[in-house]
Structures are given as C-alpha cells and as structure tokens.
C-alpha cells in the first residue's frame, strides 16, 4: 500500500507534531529525521523534501509553539469578558496546550534550545509580547476596579508566566505523572486572591 500523498502544508504540520512528540518522550537529543519519518509514516527522504535538516524542523517546531500561544492570546483578549476572566482563560488554555503536547516543556527548558541564538531570540520575543499583553489586561482590571489599585501589573504579569513555567517544569520532572491542570489551578486561585480587589472575589 503506497504512502498517502498530502499537501506540503499538511505534511509539514505532521512532521512538526511528530517532532514534538519525540521531544516529549526522548528530549531534543532523541530527535532524529529517521524517527520523525517513522512516526509520520513516510520515508526519511520525504522529510528532506519539506525541511533542509533537523535544525530546520526544530525551528518550525518553535515557530508552531509561537503561533499557538499568539492565537490563544488573540482569541481570549478579543472576547468581551472581564479582565480576570480573560486571565483565567489564558492560564487554563496555555496549560491545556502543554498537557496535550508533552514536548513543549522539554523543548522550552532544553539547554540545546538555549544555545541556539535564533530560537532563543524567538522565545524571548514571544515572552516579551506575552508579558505586554498580560500587563495590559491587568491594567484593564485596575481601571475597572476588579484588580487592586496598588498592583504592580508588570510584576504580576511576570508572576503569571512564572506560574505556567513552574507548573510545566514540575510536570515534566515528574515524567508527566503529576496533575498539570490540578497544580496549576491551585496556583491560579492563590494568584487571583492576591490581585483581586476587596469585595470582588468570586
């Protein structure tokens, strides 16, 4: 039975998904074009029709993560809901994405990625945009009275990202045996209690 032909776009997405799956299981050091080809169900030669080498696949994987997080932020921030509800949705959606893609924390926290200046810069830029958008949402909360007026919104935006990183790191270090969403929910409740204006707690 021949290999099913797919469009270039679909095939690239399959390769990226397979790469992320392998990273989740074996780390970046376990990522090989032969392993990706096997996971997708195509020949290794077919991989090179879409990507120049493994580094190009890794770059595409980081770009896919960048696109996903940007889409999460855009989808939530454009909704007409209270600022604290926006933050709650972003937090849950981000952790849900990580839970569905075990390779994400092992990619983001890998030393290999941090020594790739191009990928490191992409992630750094993504985090900067993330922090700016979160700060804006927190500022909205201060303006409408749902967030304490004395809140350092930039600092609390950083703490928000830190909660996601901590939850993902603990989950990864446990070999995915702990409850990512459960641990994250505990952190979120404490965070919300710290920033929510008195009399606005729900």
Description of the structure:
- The protein is 75% helix and 0% strand.
- The longest helix is centred in the middle third of the chain and has 28 residues.
- The protein has a domain of 138 residues: Orthogonal Bundle (Tetracycline Repressor, domain 2).
- It is mostly helical and 202 residues long.
- It is elongated, with a radius of gyration of 19 Å.
In short:
The protein is mostly helical.
* Helix content, binned percent: over 70%
What are the low-pLDDT stretches, counting only 5+ consecutive residues below 50? none
Provide the structure class.
Answer: mainly alpha
Number of strands: 0
* CATH architecture classification of the domain at 58-195: Orthogonal Bundle
Series of secondary-structure elements, N-terminal to C-terminal: HHHHHHHHHH
CATH level 4 superfamily of the domain at 58-195: Tetracycline Repressor, domain 2
Shape: elongated
Main sheet attributes: strand count, strand direction, barrel closure: none
Distance between the termini: 58 Å
Number of H/I helices: 10
Radius of gyration: 19 Å
CATH class of the domain at 58-195: Mainly Alpha
